[in-house]
Each structure stands twice: as structure tokens, then as C-alpha cells.
Amino acid sequence: QAYVSYSNIAALTHLAAKPGWEITSTLDDIKIWTHEEGDVLSFKVEMQVKIQSHLAFSLLSDFTVRQQWDKHFLTCKLLQAVSEDEKIYYVTSPPMTGHKPRDFVILVSQRQPCKPSEPFVVAVKSVTLTSMPPSPEYCRSEILCAGFQIYDDNSFCKVCYFNQVTSGIMPYLAANLTGSSKSIEDTALECIKFLE
């Protein structure tokens, strides 16, 4: 368990530090970046939020309130609190046209910064739980690496959301990334509104 949670945080930190991010869109308080490597596409959404970083951290690390701002989360149930900083959730997503609804079993690891210059981290990856086998009515999907880094910015904070996407999730995002990144922007705006 210790290894899995460490690798969850490490994978997000590694993804955030990769060179070669390209900015694709800029709104007032939102910037969207993408990074391509083989058949893996990652994106980063940077949001300026007018609350303090520790508040944003406590709201973003509680996945049971995620569906209040993220329409990709239909339900989210806490399956297991492994420790104070590690929780396993079962998430369902609404169906897209012509697809079964998706479900996920995810580990959410959270870390407070050791130094003021470091971010708060909420890292997310899929895990396998024997008590939650795939069910025929859902398409079991995998999150390779996703999560938030939250930086202090005086009395405000900067929230960076990362998601590494395999070709399996591509149909859901293809429409957004080819034309405008509208759905990503809408979700980011909802997130800012929720946090503030």
C-alpha cells in the first residue's frame, strides 16, 4: 500500500515536471496545456482561484463532493479509507452516445507540502479491488495518472489539474481537443465557481 500511494504521488509529480507542454488555450483565469507522447495524451488545466491553497486542497481532496462541479462524475462512493491520506473510491460516469456508462475504482492520495514553495498534491490512479469486479452494465475504465497540484499565490492559489489519457478515453475528449476545449473549460469554470 505504501508503495502504491508513493507511486501515485510520484507519477503525478513526474507528469507535471515533463518538458514539452504546449499551451492550447487561454481564458482569463484558465490556461489549458497538452503533452503528447506515443499514444498517451496528457492535459493540464491551470486555474487562478480566489481562495487560499489549504482550503482548495481540502475541497479538492474530498471526492464525494466532486459531482457538484464535475459532470463527468455521476456518482462517487468511498469504498475504503486506507489511511487519512489515502482513500479508495468507486466512481461512475454518465454514458456518452452509443457507449455504456463507465466506472472506475480509484485511489486518491493527498499530501501537504513540506516546504512553502511546494504544492499541495491530490493524486489519482486506478486500482484493482477484488471486492469491486467489473460489472456487465458498465465499461470499466482506467485512470493512468490524474490529479491536482495547488500552489500558494499570495492570498489566492493556483490550481493545476492533470490528466493522462490513454486511447481508451480518447473518444470522450476527441471532440473537445480537436475543436475547442469547451468541455474542459466549462468543467474548469465550474470548479473555480465551486471553490470560490
Question: If you had to describe this structure to a student in words, what would you say it looks like?
Answer:
- It is a single chain.
- The chain has 196 residues and is an alpha+beta fold.
- It has a single domain, classed as Alpha-D-Glucose-1,6-Bisphosphate, Chain A, domain 4 (2-Layer Sandwich).
- The chain is 24% helix and 39% strand.
- It has helices spanning 2-17, 53-60, 170-178, 182-195, and strands at 22-26, 30-37, 40-49, 75-81, 86-93, 102-111, 120-126, 139-140, 145-153, 156-165.
- Strands 1, 2, 3, 4, 5, 6, 7, 8, 9 and 10 form a 10-stranded mixed β-sheet that branches.
- A hairpin with a 3-residue loop joins strand 1 and strand 2 (30-37).
- The radius of gyration is 16 Å and the shape is globular.
- InterPro entries: START-like_dom_sf, START_lipid-bd_dom, START_lipid_transfer.
Tag the structure with descriptive keywords.
196 residues; alpha+beta; Alpha-D-Glucose-1,6-Bisphosphate, Chain A, domain 4; 10-stranded mixed beta sheet; 4 helices; 39% strand; START-like_dom_sf; START_lipid-bd_dom; START_lipid_transfer
Q: How is the topology of this model organized?
A:
Layout: H1 2-17, E1 22-26, E2 30-37, E3 40-49, H2 53-60, E4 75-81, E5 86-93, E6 102-111, E7 120-126, E8 139-140, E9 145-153, E10 156-165, H3 170-178, H4 182-195
Parallel strand pairs: 6-8
Antiparallel strand pairs: 1-2, 2-3, 3-10, 4-5, 5-6, 6-7, 7-9, 9-10
What's this model, at a glance?
This protein is an alpha+beta fold and 196 residues long. The protein has helices spanning 2-17, 53-60, 170-178, 182-195, and strands at residues 22-26, 30-37, 40-49, 75-81, 86-93, 102-111, 120-126, 139-140, 145-153, 156-165.
